[in-house]
Each structure stands twice: as C-alpha cells, then as structure tokens.
C-alpha cells in the first residue's frame, strides 16, 4: 500500500518518479483495496499489509488508524492482519512510537551505516546529510522499546567498509539488518556495483559482515543469511516454482490513486515502451476476473513466466531464488523473458556461495573437533 508517493528526502539511488506528489490515498480506496484482497482470497498464511513508497510517515498516524480499522472490518472473522512500515526514520517521535506500539506495527528503517556512508547518498532536498536525524528517530524507537530492523543499501563504497559498518551496527545495538544492493531500475540506469570486480568484492564483503554478525554478542541477524537458511531447511525446498515477485498476486501493490500492480512492487509508477505503466486495473472498477483477462496482465505474465522457465532450465541457483525479480530483468536485460542479472548474482548467488561455504567449513570442522575431544577424554 502506497499511502503517498511523496518523499521528504532525495536519495541519489532513488528510482521513484513521483516523489514530489503529495496526494494522499483516500480512505475509500483503502476500503476498496481491502475488499479486493479478501473477496479474491489473496490473503495467504503469511499475508501482511506493507505501507511504503515515498515516505509513509508524512501521512498522519490518525489516517493509518482509520485505514487499519477498514482492513479489520473487511477481514474474515478471526483473522489478525499484521501491518509493516518502511520509513527513512527522520520523522519518528513519541507520537509515532505510541502508534507503532498500539498497532504492533513492524517497523523497518532505512540506514546505510555510519554518517560517512549514509550521508553520501541519503540526502535532504537541499543536499544535506540525513544521518543525524535518522539516528534521532532510532533513539526514540529504542527508548520506547519499539522493535525495528534496518535496511542498508550497499554500493561500491560500502564494499570496502565491512568492518566500519559492523562496528557501527554493533555499537548502536542494531541486531536485525538487511542488505539491499544498489539496483538498476526505472530512471536509475546505472549502479556503482557494475564496476569491474564488484562480484568478488561483494562476496568478500558479505563473508566479512556475516562472520562479524555471528561473532557479535548477541548475534546480529542478517536477513539474507537467515532467509537462505530458512529456505534450505524448508520441507518444500526444491518444489517451489516461483517466488513472490514473479508469481501473479504474490505481491499486490496499490498506488495512492488506487491503481493496481502485481509482480515486483517497484514496477508501480515506472514506465516502459512495451508495457506502458504496468498498471493492471484501478480499484474503482477492477475485479479479479477482469484483471486476469486484461491484456496488460496477460502480456506481463507471459514474458515473466517464460523468463522463470529459462532460469529453471539454466541456473544452478534456481531453487534458492525461484526465477529472480522481474523488475531487475526488465531494466537490466531489457526484457522480462531473460535470466541472470547483476541483482541476482549479488543478492542470491554470492550470498548462497558465502553461506554454503560457511556450512561446509563447519561440517568439515565437526569431525576434527569430535576426534580431539575423544582423544582428550
């Protein structure tokens, strides 16, 4: 759910084209979104409402209280609907902490590490750094006991700063971190991670942060590592054919104007010569059957599905990523019907190689440790 496209800052790597638009989603649209989701029975067991895109905290807490009440009113009896919010953290105060605690909101804060790293890319509209203001917001969360996680964007400058980054997170008692690679999508046509040697440097970086995270007391949970381990431990490992970004309605995105999107949420608001604005309908008149029959949806699904099939036939990592992210395929390769991207090489392949090497090392050390203990005994 995109309550507004407006954002109060101007990050160098931001792809959102409408971040000057201060339109707020009408509550009537929220109600229509809830009816669309629940009438179509799209609420899977892990169903969550995520408020994001632009800066969600520029919309008042009272608006969200009414929006959440609308979802609760339409939800099936007995279903508790979880909500999450991704924010740049600059506007967090006690009023927002009251709201987060009251609604059990899952809170994610965008923070690229130390002031040196963060302020180089995440700036105010006048070009000033935002780190100090974000840390003030995080201090509010900590004082009030609001759980939160961090999303940190990794660019070329970050790859040589693993020690600096983990010293910072450890000193600030930040225990849940996700690393988003600097992507190519929409108006962002290049990434600093395209530089020669970045794949090797990212593997070195991720191995270092993973080692430091495990050694921390208490440990720092790295989202990519935890997600991979959960995937490997799942009884259904090897049977999944799609992920939430390339399965129809795995993710449903609703813009502030009520436009509907599926597949990669980043597609909302972008444009492409072949697929226009990626919109598959508007909540004012959309029905699930109408969306499924729409030429826009069918054209995207055809190409995305063919791309997933090509990944399955050619990629040794398929069971870990299940066919990749359509938005990255389109804006890196020029078509949904494609395979490997820079995004998947770093976010999936490199992560898998590092974590699997760690597991193999531990398995190799286990018999030696057992033999040493036996001999000592």
From TrEMBL:
Residues 1-219 form the Radical SAM core domain. Keywords: Iron, Iron-sulfur, Metal-binding, S-adenosyl-L-methionine. InterPro entries: Aldolase_TIM (IPR013785), rSAM (IPR007197), rSAM_sf (IPR058240), rSAM_SPASM_GrrM_OscB (IPR026357), Sulphatase_maturase_rSAM (IPR023867). This is GRRM system radical SAM/SPASM domain protein. Its cofactor is [4Fe-4S] cluster. It comes from the Bacteria. GO terms for molecular function: iron-sulfur cluster binding; metal ion binding; oxidoreductase activity.
